[in-house]
Amino acid sequence: MNPLEHQLSYPHGDALPAVGASIEIAPGLKWLRMALPFALDHINLWLLRDRVEDARGLVEGWAIVDCGIANEPTRAAWEQVFANELEGLPVTRVICTHMHPDHIGNAHWLVERFGCGFWISSLDWHAAQLGSLRTTGNGGAAAAAHFGAHGLIDEEALAKVRARTNYYASMVPAVPTVFHRLQDGLRLRIGAHEWQCIAGYGHAPEHIALYSETQGMLISGDMVLPRISTNVSVWDMEPESNPLQQYLDSLERYRPLPAATLVLPSHGRPFTGLHTRIDQLRAHHDERLADVLAACRERPTTASDLLEVLFRRKLDLHQITFAMGEAVAHLHKLWFEGALRRERGADGVLRFTAA
Q1: Where is the Metallo-beta-lactamase domain (predicted)?
Q2: Residue 277 in contact with residue 224, Cβ under 8 Å?
């Protein structure tokens, strides 16, 4: 546990759900944990006792919040959940906080299996549909050109990025063709409790967190994590964006929630200390922005130059693409504020200097 984590409280201690099993967070709310084949090696998923009326009639069962990526180990874990955790009841609906593969990967499979509804924000549904048809963001020729323009000159790495033309679709082979729209301020009745939708930006097109006032719980998705900072990146399809500003603004949407709120994050353990964690995340980005500004005062700086400034560890290709996106995001926040100037050199590479 790092020093910042000591400032938070973990009601369930070190307990973690076994594969295919759950830990009960509250009556009618279960915590699942499934593996991911990345350095970030797990995702938390949630089962909420539910009752809906849909094409099947009045259905008692369980709502699923987030799905894991579409691979055989994850689907095998889901089979164990179906056998052991649903208490003989069906899935009432699938809810996704956002469109990233670890959250939406199995949505189509689950919806087809149970004949249930699918709930997600409109922006994320459209982004997922596009992503399952063609690579976006961190693979293919456009991504390689984007990273190259920001100083990534390692031809081996660029060749690997170009070759990742099926990256998103390999983990999200299909997306449900029909959805129910989640949007900021919507109050969603799930079983006996009402959950307020809180939209967040910067990490995904329109990330939806869910807050239950009656239970004092926030399903935070990826917007507030206890151990790591949320990835905030500039991608090739929106190369002039300012997602870090969007993310920091979005964090303040959680500030009005009670201090005792139990946060159910997508990665890490459930915790209390929401306001403390918001302050930690803001301080983290303030420190990184100061590091970026200092580097740009010394000499014209590319996003690639900043990797060793922002990430003091060896990165694999998966991590490099996210790290490049984050470096550009920090540069862009300072550039949008007027603290940096940006120039494209004769080599086509963008470099930033202090204004």
Answers
A1: 42-267
A2: yes
Beginning with the edge strand found earlier in the chain, give each strand of the sheet holding 271-272 in spatial order. 187-190, 193-200, 207-212, 217-221, 262-265, 271-272
Query: Quick check: 121 and 221 in contact, CB under 8 A?
Result: no
How far apart are alpha carbons 253 and 303 in whole angstroms?
Answer: 29
Alpha-carbon dihedral 123, 45, 100, 312, rounded to 10 degrees? 130
Q: What is the pLDDT, as a whole number, of residue 136?
A: 59
Inform me whether the pLDDT recorded for 138 exceeds 90.
Answer: no
Q: pLDDT tens digits for 237-281?
A: 999 999 999 999 999 999 999 999 999 999 999 999 999 999 999
Structure tokens at 50: 């539910």
Residue 314 has pLDDT above 90, yes or no: no
* Strands, E assignment, 148-192: 180-182, 187-190
**pTM assigned to the model:** 0.96
Strand (E) or helix (H) holding 326 = helix 317-336
Listed in sequence order, the residues at least 6 apart from 2 whose beta carbon sits closer than 8 Å to its beta carbon are 227
Radius of gyration over alpha carbons of the chain, in Å? Answer: 21
The amino acid at 210: L
- How many residues appear in the chain? 355
Rounded CA-CA distance 180/197 in Å is 13
**Sign, CA torsion 240/141/74/56:** positive
* Superfamily for the 5-294 domain: Ribonuclease Z/Hydroxyacylglutathione hydrolase-like (3.60.15.10)
Residue 6, pLDDT score: 85
pLDDT of residue 112: 97
Cα–Cα distance between 313 and 330 in angstroms, integer?
Answer: 18
**The token pair that represents 245 in the structure block:** 């500003």
pLDDT tens for 204-239 read 999 999 999 999 999 999 999 999 999 999 999 999
Rounded CA-CA distance 330/266 in Å is 24
Tokens of 263: 């946060």
- Domain-by-domain residue ranges, the chain? 5-294
Pair 352, 296: CB distance under 8 Å: yes
Residue 181 pLDDT class (50, 70, 90 cuts)? very high
